[in-house]
Write a structure and sequence with these properties.
The protein is mainly β. It has strands spanning 2-3, 10-11, 16-18, 23-25, 31-32, 34-35, 68-70, 76-78, 82-85, 91-94, 100-101, 107-109, 114-116, 121-123. Strand 13 (114-116) and strand 14 form a beta hairpin.
């Protein structure tokens, strides 16, 4: 076990103490960002109004084969990914749509966790929850 700084609580080995919430959290390894490829030039902007299509033909962009998620005018990530600012002001792709980008500009964490220590780990994954 690991004793917490409050000298009243302990956590199982491999977990850290979160005194603010009185929980034990396991730091998961962060996921490295993937390089955001340069997008091909975009087609001209469509007119402001187009006739509606039948509802059965509409699909979310992320489900389309080869769909992209635009980061800026020249970079994009694949469908199902999230754009994150990487080092040097460029872009990286997090492989988790609902992930969180780390401040180090090199990593991200999956949904339900957040970056800690500038990208050293992802938390919380509490031992007392399924």
């Amino acid at each position: 076990a690991v004793c917490c700084r409050d000298h009243q609580h302990c956590c199982p080995q491999g977990y850290t103490c979160n005194e603010a919430t009185e929980t034990c959290e396991k730091l998961l390894a962060p996921t490295p960002l993937l390089r955001a490829p340069t997008s091909p030039p975009r087609a001209p902007t469509p007119p402001l109004w187009t006739p509606p299509r039948p509802a059965t033909s509409l699909r979310a962009a992320s489900t389309e084969p080869g769909a992209t998620v635009p980061c800026d005018a020249t970079h994009s990530c694949r469908g199902g990914q999230k754009c994150c600012r990487s080092r040097g002001g460029s872009w990286g792709c997090c492989p988790f749509t609902q992930g969180s980008c780390c401040s180090d500009g090199r990593h991200c964490c999956q949904a339900g966790s957040r970056c800690t220590g500038g990208g050293w780990g992802c938390s919380p994954q509490r031992w007392d929850l399924p």
